[in-house]
Design a protein that fits this description.
With about 180 residues, the protein is mainly β. It has strands at about 30, 35-40, 45-50, 55-60, 65-70, 75-80, 80-85, 95, 100-105, 110-120, 125-135, 145, 150, 155-165, 165-170, 175-180. Strands 9, 10, 11, 12 and 13 form a five-stranded antiparallel β-sheet that branches. Strands 1-2-3-4 form a four-stranded antiparallel β-sheet, with no helix packed on it. The protein has a four-stranded antiparallel β-sheet with strand order 5-6-7-8, with no helix packed on it.
């Protein structure tokens, strides 16, 4: 939806049957003048700021949990149990992590942060031991923090970059600040 009169009236910006969601996780990312929206059936929809369809990137895995647009070529997509990265705008994909994770974000093509699930116990009350990990080589290797937190990834809601090397993540009822060394 979009409004050009301070919310008094609304017009549809973009609509598609690919956007029929019933999932808890949903992700979209704004990069420069483009909007990238995770869609059903492992699709990533790219729109211009006026809602015009630029392209549909088919990843053929679903559901998409998180999307990170680093630049026009470098895209990271998180699924349940796998993280993929493209270095050519979504034409091809490489696995950069093969367990459950949640995306915090990338400062650059090389530097990024994720929440990694290290172990889980699916009892009556789901419990997972999660930690924050960083990369300096585009996700080929992850430096894991020594401290684990129960259900950090499960209660993860959102992340925002404040400045280069400074991230805030909202998880459950806690706001966490992460600063680069």
């Amino acid at each position: 939806m979009k409004s050009i009169d301070d919310g008094q009236t609304w017009d549809t910006l973009f609509s598609s049957p690919d956007l029929g969601f019933t999932l808890v996780t949903f992700s979209f990312e704004i990069f420069q003048d483009r909007i990238f929206i995770s869609a059903k059936d492992g699709k990533l929809i790219e729109l211009d700021k006026n809602g015009n369809l630029i392209k549909i990137i088919s990843i053929n895995k679903s559901p998409i949990w998180d999307v990170e647009i680093i630049d026009t070529n470098n895209i990271v997509v998180v699924f349940s149990g796998e993280v993929l990265k493209s270095t050519n705008g979504g034409d091809t994909w490489q696995t950069i992590y093969n367990e459950s994770a949640r995306m915090i974000g990338f400062d650059s093509v090389n530097k990024g942060l994720m929440i990694l699930q290290k172990s889980s116990c699916p009892t009556d009350v789901f419990q997972a031991n999660d930690l924050i990990a960083s990369t300096v080589n585009g996700g080929l290797d992850w430096q894991e923090s020594q401290e684990t937190t129960t259900n950090l990834g499960t209660s993860f809601r959102n992340s925002q970059k404040m400045d280069a090397g400074i991230w805030y993540i909202m998880t459950g009822n806690t706001l966490i600040e992460i600063k680069e060394k």
